[in-house]
Each structure stands twice: as C-alpha cells, then as structure tokens.
Amino acid sequence: MEDLQLLDAIERYLNGTMLPEEKKYFQQLRRNTPEIDQMVVEHRLFLQQMDLYAGQKELMHSLNEVHNDLVEKGDIYEGGELNTKGHVIQFWNKYKRTIGIAASIAGVVALGISFLVTQLSPATTKSDLQELSRQVKELNTKTNVLAAEFKRNPKIPEKPTYTSGGTGFLIDRKGYLVTNAHVLKGKGVVVSNSNGPELSATIVYKDDSTDLALLKIDDENFKPVTSLPYAVKKSNFDLGSEVYTLGYPRNIIVYNSGYISATAGYDGDTASLQISLPANPGNSGGPVLNKNGEIVGILSTRERQAEGVVFAVKAKGIYQLLEDLKKNDTTYQNIKLPASSSLKNLDREQQIKQVQDYVYQIKVYN
Amino acid sequence: MVLKIHSGVKPETNEQLLLRGLAENDAKAIETIYKDNFKMVQAFILNNSGSYDDARDIFQEAMITLYEKAKSESFVLTSQIKTYLYSVCRRLWLKRLQQMGRYVAQSEILEETIAVEDDIAIHEKRNADFAIMDRAMNSLGEPCKSLLESYYLQKKSMHDIAADFGYTNADNAKTQKYKCLMRLKKLFFSQYNIGE
C-alpha cells in the first residue's frame, strides 16, 4: 500500500528517525512535489496537536490521581465523613499503642453487648428493603435454548439451575468485576455482556457487611480490555446531581436515570446514598454514574414502601474492598481502579455506547 | 503579554524547580503544588456559591493553564505560583458564575491578583483544540481508539501493540493503525480550521 508507506515516511521524517540518505532523498521529493510538501505540513500540525493532546490528557490523569490521594490522606477536605477519615489516620498514627490496648478492652465489651443485643432485639428491619437481585428461575429455559446455539463452555455445567442474578461491571482491564454480595447466592457464576457469549467467573471476595463482592472472569474466551472509559469516584458528590445506571433487570441491558436524593442511605447509613430512580430486581450491582461518566455508587436495594427510592453503596467502598483484599493477598496488588473518565463532555447516548460493553449480566448457580 | 513582576516578591528558585517538574508531568511536583494551593482556591469557591466539585474543576483548569505556561519556551516566572493560580481560578470562577447568570458581587479586591486574561484566552483556545481531538478520538470506536492511544499517547512500539491487540505481526498492526489514523485525521480536520 503506497499511501501507507508515504505516511510512514512522513512520520519518520518528522520525528527525526530517518537515515541521512533517505532524508536527503525525501527532502528532494518534498521540494519537487507540492502535494507531498502539503502533506508534510499538514501532518506536522496534526502531530503537534496530538502531542499537546497527549500531554494534557496525561496531566489531567495525574491531577485526578493526586487529588484523590490527597482526599484519602485527609489533606483535602470535601465534606462528609471523608475528612474525619483523614483525621482518624493521623490520630491513629499518633496513638497507635494506647489505642491498641483500649481497643482490646473495648472489643471484649462490645462482643458481650452485641451478643446481648442480638439475643434481645426483635426481628430485623431488613424486610423494609428489597434487594434488587433477581430470581432467575424463569431464565433457565431461555438460556438452555441459547446454550445449544453457542459452542459449549466446558467450565459451565451442562444445565445449571440459576439461583440468583444481577448486574456487575468491570473495574480492571483484566476481568475483575464488582457487584453486590447479595447477588451471589450460590457457588458458580456466569457472566455475559450485551454482545458476548456467557463466560465463567469465580468469586474472589465477598463482604456481606458492605454488600460488595469482587468477581474474576476466568474464561479463556475473555480478552482483557485496553482501557475502561469510566472512572471510579472516591470523593463525595453533590445532592441533586444527575445520575444514571445500566443493568440487567431483564435479559437485555436497560438504562435508567435519576438524581442523588440523599447523601446517606437507609437508616442513616453513611456508606451508601439514596437515589431517586426506577430500578427493578436484577439492577443490583449495577454502576451508578454521574454526568461526567464517573461511577459514584453500586445500586443495591430499594425501599419496599416507596416508589423510586433506591439505595446504592458509595463507590468509595470499592477502594476499601480492594485495600482489604490487598492486605491479605499480594496476588491482587495489580488491580488498579480507573481514576479518570474519558466520558466527560460526551452526550449521554455516546457515554452509554462506551459504557455498556463493560456492564455484565450476572447469573449464579449452585 | 509579559506579566509584571509581583510587588516586592522575588521569585524563588524552588518555585522554578516545581514549575519545571509540572511541565514534565512529575507526580511529586504536581502533588506539592496541589497541596500548597488547593485549599485556598477551594475556600474561595465555596465562599462564592460553588461546590466541592466546582473547586476541583476550576483548580485543575488553572493547573492546566499553569502547565501550558510552564511548557512554553518563552516562559519566565514573574509571580509566585500561589498568586498566579489564585488569580486564574478567581477569573475562571467569576466568569463561570456570570455565564450561569448569577449576580456576582465584585468584592473590593483585598487579595493580590495579577492580570491573567491573556493566559486564559490562550488556554481556552487550547481547550477547544483539545476538545476537537477528544471528540474525534471518541467517535473512532474500538479498536481504533485504543490502537492510536497506545501508539501516540502511551508511545508503545508497533511490535508491542501487535502483541497487545493480538495481531499476528507488526505489519498488520501498522496497516490497521494507518486506516485508523486516516479516519482520525479526517474527523479532526473537519473540525479544526488550518486557515486561522
């Protein structure tokens, strides 16, 4: 292909990697052929723009990382409980020993109290909330028909009986997915996005107290993605800001939008936030994104009594989950959450197009 | 326009080092500048009906303006970084408030500020160019977008790119890169006016 070689030559000429004789010849060619001369000028301008673009993009990435770092360390205060966390860390470093002793005493007392409380307290209030995981019994017939069409995946059992399901999304290029812990009522997991086959996945980590879980796609048909378009937001957000979600309440991906209606969750739970948005069983574990394409939360429960009152675990929880995980096991050191979003300034339709491939339907079997 | 030397303050060499670090995208330098200046800007924006997110946006915008300035060859440090960032943020935020149609009470200037209008104008042009490239990149689709990013942004070799994307050899990857590049250039130049 001649054009290809020409452009290749121009690029080498411009970045100075041409050999002296070739360069001499090329300059001659430039002088004699106005079209080529024009192409060189144009391409130089383009490469300049590309360089500036690359530099600024890298800087924006660094700025976001530094910002999140400083928020984490408590050097920057962004409202809410984040600051106290910073203080707690400083405080902790100062009084490590004393706290250690005090904590062990407190621990014993707390255990005693919590035992008494569980013994004496009435039935839990959990029933006010409905987990948005999905009963997938009705799916079985459909998936069996579909399964026959695909080449059989040896890791997935022949006729799995799905016990629960929901939504999850990638947080790392190499196939780590985040979802809700309550979605995973079983041992085996099958995931699929809007255009791919079913892939097998394993449960890496599950924490019922925060209702978060980490899955790893371990299927040979899964190809690592080059980059994730969205970021996972660590810091706080503003009341009333617009958000949207993608999830699998049905067998196809469904979009819904709403706004942050409270910065704390059910019963004052500061680890989650309240969102006004229509959600259905199956939306559990889906990402909640703001207008800049940053993930602010993970959709988890809705209030039974009220329409459109939905709760999401704050995205900060994902950072904590990873920290906990890395403390115990060094194999997960390389998981890196995407810190900058390439979706800023794109309109909603464009954002969805780019995000939807990384949102997976999750089905669980025993 | 050359900025007037800030009254009585001699630029410190330490600041020169920080600025050189910023121009090279050095994480340590960025963190130092960030840490020393963000709080002041945040306080200003929160006090003037902005949110935490606004403060972050505006401050980062100002950092990019400073970065562009630090990168240009003709750059001479003529004011303290603090004064410069504060002035840019102040100007950017008042401008944004005006755009939102909010009434801005021009407080009697008690703080020291310097004229940054020219820098902001340059930055805005730069931002517009950035947006054109960004839109062009984003409308390319995959694998073109990632392929070109690997080559032009992450500066990977064609050989590594071929391996990453699963091409059988570097030549095939090169052909694909060429096709993607042509599309990108077309998209870019349809928006970007060379004549100006």
From TrEMBL, chain A:
Q: What is this protein called?
A: Trypsin-like peptidase domain-containing protein
Q: Name one GO biological process term.
A: proteolysis
Record's keyword annotation contains Glycosyltransferase: no
Transmembrane annotation, as ranges: 99-117
Q: One MF term from GO for this chain? A: serine-type endopeptidase activity
One Pfam family from the record: Trypsin_2
Q: Which UniProt keywords apply?
A: Membrane, Transmembrane, Transmembrane helix
Q: Which InterPro entries match?
A: Peptidase_S1_PA, Peptidase_S1_PA_chymotrypsin, Peptidase_S1C
UniProtKB/TrEMBL annotation, chain B:
**Keywords for the protein's UniProt record, in alphabetical order:** DNA-binding, Sigma factor, Transcription, Transcription regulation
One GO biological process this protein is involved in is:
DNA-templated transcription initiation
Q: Does the keyword Transcription apply?
A: yes
- Record domain RNA polymerase sigma-70 region: where: 34-99
Transcription in keyword set: yes
A Pfam family reported for this protein in Swiss-Prot or TrEMBL: Sigma70_r2
Q: Which GO terms describe its molecular function?
A: DNA binding; sigma factor activity
Q: Quote the protein name from its UniProt record.
A: Sigma-70 family RNA polymerase sigma factor
Q: Which organism is it from?
A: Ilyomonas limi
